[in-house]
Design goal:
By secondary structure, this protein is of the alpha/beta class. It is built from twelve helices and twelve strands. The chain has a seven-stranded mixed beta sheet, with helices on both faces. The chain has a five-stranded antiparallel beta sheet with strand order 10-9-8-11-12. Strand 6, helix 6 and strand 7 form a beta-alpha-beta unit. Helix 1 runs antiparallel to helix 3. The chain is globular. The structure holds NADP nicotinamide-adenine-dinucleotide phosphate. The site of NADP nicotinamide-adenine-dinucleotide phosphate has 28 residues, from helix 1.
């Protein structure tokens, strides 16, 4: 038995966590509370060996529960005594200096160049680490480059958390629609804007609905990404590359129109902020994000409030519709955990 009471025949998986916000704090909680279950069910011992936030980094044997309490009490990675904290050290320092199996990246989205996350991801791949992402920016901007780098290095790349949190949009699309020609993907990809639209349809003010999404930890660090449609565009881009095998970046999604003013269109049906990939007759896909008026019996009209949903239309599987009701960041954290475990299975 190890010092922490787990069987030493378990396969250790060493993790570096970058970003310690809403999502990673939920992951720390899961690593703390599901440890025995992960050992019993999958034979894995997931260990945190490095963490970084905006103010510093820590490396060593990090107890996830202890770090969570430290962070919730206002501490940072850099002043975490339980793990060799270094104020001012960066995630890049950590990735370059600490040996680990998987980088788990959940720092904020930067849509101008994907940095600094893109640099962390490429550095980790260059050092032979697999990468699990919740941050969409590196893939929305540079999917093919990141994918190719991972292939060349022979490491895993998993990103199910980047598209609709816990909903396995990417997994179903990549794994289960085998040999199908996908004609159309339609999705309510963003729960913050869906919640705001639903509340506005009930007469609630826009600002109050947004504040509620922020308080639940679901809204993006910069909520303009949610309400202006860019979060949906990022997710659509990742689905296009990973599932449709259509090489593109978020810059190819046109138009991208957010929800401001959308309530005015709501009289005859239900307005949803839809991301759509429509197969072109000559090959490739047209990608768009915009508020769309749907008849009441449309599958995605029934995706309400905190829900997100995606409808795949293909020649072999006809219509596959999946949806999730996600009211906090736990689903996203659980998706990152799923990715780590699946990389090792
Ligand atoms: N929230 C969700 O439900 C959800 C769902 C799917 C995907 N995501 C994605 O997951 C990521 C994190 O979301 P979140 O809600 O957890 O965000 P958040 O609460 O704003 O947390 C962001 C974290 O990143 C840290 N950070 C900022 N700059 C950094 C840097 N240069 N190096 C290292 N760490 C840095 C922050 O440090 P400090 O703690 O020092 O401020 C903070 O801990 C985002 O990319 C988001 O798009 C979120």
């Amino acid at each position: 038995m190890s010092a922490l009471g787990l069987n030493s025949s378990l396969a250790p998986v060493d993790l570096i966590l970058v970003g310690l916000g809403n999502v990673q704090q939920r992951l720390l909680y899961l690593l703390d509370t599901r440890r025995a279950l992960l050992a019993e069910r999958y034979g894995l011992d997931l260990r945190v060996v490095g963490v970084a936030d905006s103010r510093g980094a820590a490396a060593g044997e990090i107890d996830p529960g202890e770090l969570l309490r430290h962070k919730q009490a206002g501490g940072g990675a850099g002043d975490f005594a339980g793990g060799g904290g270094q104020p001012g050290a960066s995630a890049l320092d950590l990735v370059r200096q600490v040996r680990a199996d998987v980088l788990v990246e959940a720092s904020p989205v930067n849509l101008s160049d994907g940095e600094p996350a893109l640099g962390f991801v490429l550095a980790a791949i260059a050092r032979g680490m697999s990468v699990v992402l919740a941050n969409k920016a590196p893939l929305a901007l540079r999917f093919q480059d990141v994918h190719d780098a991972a292939q060349r290095a022979g490491v895993g790349l998993a990103f199910s958390a980047t598209v609709c949190g816990g909903l396995p949009v990417v997994n179903v699309g990549m794994r289960d629609l085998v040999a199908a020609r996908i004609e159309r993907v339609e999705g309510v990809f963003n729960s913050t804007s869906n919640y705001i639209l639903s509340e506005m349809a009930r007469g609630a003010p826009y600002a109050a609905a947004l504040a509620e999404a922020q308080q639940r930890g679901i809204a993006e660090t910069n909520p303009r990404l949610d309400v202006e449609g860019w979060d949906s565009a990022n997710k659509l881009t990742i689905v296009a590359n990973a599932v449709l095998r259509f090489a593109c970046s978020v810059r190819d999604v046109k138009p991208v129109i957010g929800i401001e003013g959308a309530e005015r269109q709501g009289a005859e049906g239900v307005v949803r902020l839809l991301g759509i990939a429509q197969r072109r007759a000559g090959g490739g896909y047209d990608l768009s994000v915009q508020p769309t008026l749907l008849p009441h019996d449309h599958k995605l009209a029934q995706v309400n409030g905190w829900q997100m949903g995606v409808l795949y239309t293909s020649d072999l599987f006809e219509q596959v519709f999946i949806a999730i009701d996600e009211r906090g960041p736990t689903g996203t954290a659980a998706a990152m955990l799923r990715d780590v475990v699946n990389l090792r299975r």
